[in-house]
Amino acid sequence: MKNKATDSYNELTPKEKLQHDMHRYEAYMRHREVLAEAGANQSRSFDKHVLALGAGALGISLVFLKDIAPCPDRHTLWALYISWICFIASMTITLVSFLCGKAAYSREIKEWDNKFASKSEYQKIKHKKIFSCITKGLNIISCCAFILGVVFLCLFAMQNLHRSVVDK
């Protein structure tokens, strides 16, 4: 089975081949730069926000425990502990996600380099993008853990805020 793209390329004059190769290289470099920048932006924004929010929520819970409800109902402590576990899990998962995201972009750049070197513009990608899938999954889990942390922290706060107001 012949490749139509290769056949049409072979029919070009040397000058046309050079122009084609130059355009191909320019498109390659633009796409490669976009991939590299996307990788950097992904890790800078999402990961920063989840880490900052998780750390902030832990801080708020400690302030609440110290200043607002210093003697919480012991039957509600489970909600506080679960919220802490969720926030810590969210931050830890985000850090692992960052590493997987970095691996995904590195792999994509390497694949793009190989694709360019083989001069096969229409080559199908044969492997599954495992690091990209893992990163997406970890980001979803991290968000869910953060949201659960907020829910359990609010549950703890509501139960003990009411108690704190009643005690005063």
What does this structure look like?
With 168 residues, the protein is an all-alpha fold. The chain has one domain. Helix content is 84%, strand content 0%. The protein is built from 4 helices and no strands. The protein has helices at residues 4-10, 14-68, 77-117, 130-167. It is rod-shaped, with a radius of gyration of 26 Å. The protein starts with a helix and ends with a helix. The model has no long low-confidence stretch (mean pLDDT 84).
Brief digest:
By secondary structure, the chain is an all-alpha fold.
Q: What characterizes the major β-sheet?
A: none
Strand residues, percent:
under 5%
Distance between the termini: 84 Å
The quaternary structure here is: single chain
Mean pLDDT over the full residue set: 84
Question: Strand pairing plus helix content: what structural class?
Answer: mainly alpha
What is the helical fraction, as a range of percent? over 70%
Question: Care to count the β-strands?
Answer: 0
Element order, helices and strands?
HHHH
Flag low-confidence runs.
none
Looking at the structure, what is the overall shape? rod-shaped
Q: How many separate structural domains?
A: 1
Number of helices: 4
